[in-house]
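thought: fold this chain, then report.
action: predict
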Amino acid sequence: MTGWDLKPQGIQGVLKAAGETASHIETYATSYGEHLTSAASSAGTVSAEGGGSGGEQPAGGLVALALSQYAEHAAVDLKFIAARAGKSLTGAVEATTAYLNGDEEMAAEAQRRALGVPDLDPMKPGVQSS
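observation:
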């Protein structure tokens, strides 16, 4: 692995900035969910006057249903983005540390692990995360 020329101060600055940005993912995801919920509840319903068979009002119409289904799908993507960010930052730290300790082989292995697909359910029996 010739050609690596790492500058620890520059790496530290980038990791700090990336870590600060990544730490906001949960806040953004929560806000995203709140906005979807608000949009779904504001979308109105498509139903005959009087609601359901017992006279109750339906919880939401077609738009609310579509937003709910979209949110379920998007939640998996958001979880993946957070996991990917965490693995990338950890991999960068491990690779840099190994490189600075003079072990380029360990740096390459840490880099390879960071590029692996994150396990979104690490508690599954019989599955080991990389």
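thought: worth noting. The two ends are 22 Å apart (CA to CA).
final: tokens above.
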